[in-house]
Amino acid sequence: MRKFANYLKESFTELTKKVTWPTWDKLQSSALLVLVATVILSLVVFVMDFAFQKLMETIYSL
Predict the structure, then answer these.
(1) Is the pTM of this model over 0.85?
(2) Cα separations (Å) of 31 from 41, 45, 51?
(3) From CA 46, how far away is CA 2, in angstroms rounded?
(4) What angle do CA 29, 15, 22 make, to 5 degrees?
(5) For 57, what's the count of Cα atoms within 13 Å in the CB-facing half-sphere?
(6) Residue 22: partners with Cβ closer than 8 Å, 6 or more residues away
(7) How far apart are CA 52 and CA 5, in angstroms?
């Protein structure tokens, strides 16, 4: 139990004194970048899915 308590104490110290947290502006910028990348990736997957669906419909209609 002593090891666990020591782990918690050291973790708290590291998180409060050693870690450099991003600024609010940098955090917003990163979140916006992730949002834009997610939208672009989802559009690419949608277009690929739509094209594959049309290809399959064409093949099955033969």
Answers:
(1) no
(2) 15, 21, 30
(3) 53
(4) 15
(5) 6
(6) 30
(7) 56
Q: How do residues 28-52 score in pLDDT, each as one tens digit? A: 999 999 999 999 999 999 999 999 9
Please tell me the predicted confidence (pLDDT) of residue 47: 98
Domain limits of the chain? 22-62
Q: What is the length of the chain?
A: 62
Structure tokens given for 18: 């050693």
- Per DSSP, the residues of 9-51 read HHHHHIIIII--PPPHHHHHHHHHHHHHHHHHHHHHHHHHHHH
